[in-house]
Amino acid sequence: MKGKPVAESVYAELRGRLAELNFVPSLHVIRLGEDPASVAYVRLKAKRAKALGLRSTVHVLDEDTPERELLELIAALNRDDDVDGILVQLPLPAHIDVRRVLEAIDPAKDVDGFHPVNVGRLWSQGPGVGIVPCTPAGVIRLLKHYGVTIAGKRAVVVGRSNIVGKPMAALLLYENATVTVAHSRTRDLAAHLREAELVVSAVGRPHYLKPEMLCPGAVVVDVAVVRTEEGLVGDADPAVADVASKLTPVPGGVGPMTVAMLLKNTVDAALRRRG
């Protein structure tokens, strides 16, 4: 299940919507420091936004920037009616309170979907009301594109992060799957996985997911991307391809979808804000 063709279908839809607007949505990304992965991610997001025709601004702050200055910048962007989307690239330096930063962003401009208001809307009302985190939304779009039936499936989400695991579980529940969330304290993970028809793994442990842990014919979505001596790898051992009916590659699976859904969130946020 390659992500690029699905991402391109999202971009095609967005270009059609943008052509009908009398304004250009604006995305502002804030990055602290020069972490190589963050630099690469932000560069890719800005490149894709520009290619789509959005206005994209990147604010680069020193790694030792005081939390107060970061919050002041976010407050200024919140007040600016010309700004439709705000994203603070994670992870942040240790001296920054991530929770305080994410809660400072206007929920209407929170294109990552991490603000408690958007989290609450997802769990209580489902997608389409607030803004949904990009990676889980991309996974759902990917599964539907490749004809995977979600309703009624026994699904296991491995990982309980606020970025992927928890919102992924919420979206699968909304799609009428029966969902188990496994994590570092789960006893006998393999026993849960062998019952799963759909597995979404997002723990960042290279090749921990072995074929003998899975139900033959399961659909496996590998969200993790880990840099190792052999290059970029995911949670799934290569041999998983021998037992899975469908499997996302790493790289090239979920990654392109995350960026595509970020830009979709930006356009959606702009349309909501501007009526």
Fold and architecture overview:
With 275 residues, the chain is an alpha/beta fold. It folds into two domains: 89 residues, Leucine Dehydrogenase, chain A, domain 1 (Rossmann fold), CATH 3.40.50.10860; 122 residues, NAD(P)-binding Rossmann-like Domain (Rossmann fold, 3-Layer(aba) Sandwich). 39% of the residues lie in helices and 16% in strands. It has a five-stranded parallel sheet with strand order 5-4-6-7-10. The protein has a three-stranded parallel sheet with strand order 2-1-3, with helices on both faces. The chain is globular and about 55 Å long. The two termini are 36 Å apart. The model has no long low-confidence stretch (mean pLDDT 96).
Summarize the structure.
The protein has 275 residues and is an alpha/beta fold.
* Counted beta strands: 10
CATH class of the largest domain: Alpha Beta
How many strands, which pairing sense, and closed or not: the largest β-sheet?
A: 5 strands, parallel
Instruction: Classify the secondary structure makeup into a structural class.
Output: alpha/beta
How far from one another are the termini?
Answer: 36 Å
- Topology as a string of helices (H) and strands (E): HEHEHEHHHEHEHEEEEEH
The tally of helices reads 9
**Spatial sequence of strands, sheet with the most strands:** 5-4-6-7-10
Proportion of residues in extended strands: 15-25%
Find the CATH topology of the largest domain.
Answer: Rossmann fold
Number of domains: 2
Into which percent range does the helicity of residues fall? 25-40%
